[in-house]
Design brief:
By secondary structure, this protein is of the alpha+beta class. It contains four helices and two strands, in the order βαβααα. α3 packs across α4.
Length: 88
C-alpha cells in the first residue's frame, strides 16, 4: 500500500484547511493508500511555534510590506527551489 503524506504549518487557516481538504478527498479513496496530515509546527519546539505564528501575524498585520519582502526573498520560481527549504 502506498502512503500519502500531507504537510502543512498551522499558521492561521491558510495552510491547515487546504491540507485537511486534501486529506478528506484522499480518504474517499483510501483503499489505495494510507493518508496522513502532519502539522510541522506541532513537531517544533514551543519557541519556534510562537516565533513563527506570532511573527507572521505581527508582520502581516502591522508591516505587510515587510512580510511581502521576506516572502519574495525566500520564494523561488520552482517549488523545490525555495530558499528556506534547506532550513526547514
Amino acid at each position: 500500500m502506498a502512503e500519502l503524506l500531507i504537510v502543512s504549518a498551522s499558521t492561521g487557516t491558510g495552510h491547515f484547511r487546504p491540507a485537511e481538504a486534501l486529506r478528506s478527498a484522499a480518504l474517499d479513496d483510501a483503499r489505495w493508500f494510507a493518508v496522513e496530515h502532519v502539522d510541522l509546527l506541532q513537531l517544533a519546539p514551543r519557541w519556534v511555534r510562537a516565533a513563527y505564528g506570532d511573527g507572521y501575524e505581527l508582520l502581516a498585520s502591522r508591516v505587510p510590506w515587510l512580510w511581502r519582502e521576506v516572502y519574495r526573498r525566500t520564494d523561488a520560481p520552482a517549488v523545490d527551489q525555495a530558499r528556506w527549504g534547506p532550513l526547514a
